[in-house]
Every structure is written in structure tokens, then in C-alpha cells.
Amino acid sequence: MRGVVIGIGSALLVGLLSGCGNQKEATPTPSPYAKAMALKGQGQSLMLEVGASSCYACIEMKQLIDKLHKENPDHRIFVINLNEEREVAKILKIQVIPTQIVYDASGEEAWRHVGGLSESELRELAQRHGI
User: Most buried of 44, 52, 92, 102, CB within 10 angstroms?
Assistant: First the structure.
């Protein structure tokens, strides 16, 4: 009986150890906020769309932004979901969602709006700020 237990224990240990070197460590994917902050002040304007997946107006804004990204993947508009990145609300001093914030090429806040935008307003904003 003792030999069976040792054999099973050895097999488990070998199985665990053999998988250790073969697995790659997961590299965390930067959040949308982290990606935006890495680009902020790097010579190009960008926009943050701050909302939540539980907010109807925020969902509509995300759909408009997704449509713009589909037409032009180079748009620098980042959708921040406060359900996933709660700390961002405090950092950005968000009181109501959705909120859009535009940073100019030097990284300074150039424009802030609370509430949803129409598709035409969003397109005009992106064009005016070169986003």
C-alpha cells in the first residue's frame, strides 16, 4: 500500500513539474486608460469616453465610437468602462457619465463634455481636434 501511495505521489509531482516550464506567464493587457495615458502628451490629441457598461447613454456612445473605429482604426478615442476601472473616476474627477475628455497634443485637457453626443457631434469633435 505504501508503495502505491508513493507511486501516485511521484506521478502527481512529476506531472506538476513537467508543466511548469512549458507554460508562458500571462502578460497583463494594459487597460484602455493606461493605453491612453501612455500616449497622452506625445504630440497627438486623444479623447477619453468615460462611462459604464450599465449606462444606456454610455452604451450608445460606445457604439458610435466603435463605428468610427471600424471606419478608421487610427482614431485615438479610448473607451473607459468605470465598471472595470473604478479608480479612474476619482483620478479624472468624473461626477456624471458619460463624460468625454479631449487632451491636446501636449497632454493638456482641451475640452470636456458631460452627456452623450450625436454621431455628427462626435465626428465634428474628432475632426476639430485631430483625433
Answer: 102
Cell 452604451, located at residue: 59
Phi then psi for residue 111, to 5 deg, are -165, 145
pLDDT tens over the chain, length 131 residues: 555 444 444 443 344 344 455 556 677 889 999 999 999 999 999 999 999 999 999 999 999 999 999 999 999 999 999 999 999 999 999 999 999 999 999 999 999 999 999 999 999 999 999 99
Cα 5 to Cα 1: distance, rounded to the nearest angstrom: 6
Structure-block grid coordinates of residue 115: 452627456
Grid cell digits, residue 109: 485637457
Distance of CA 26 to the CA centre of its chain: 18
pTM of the model: 0.78
Contacts (Cβ under 8 Å, ≥6 apart) of 100: 47, 48, 49, 50, 61, 111, 112, 113, 117, 125
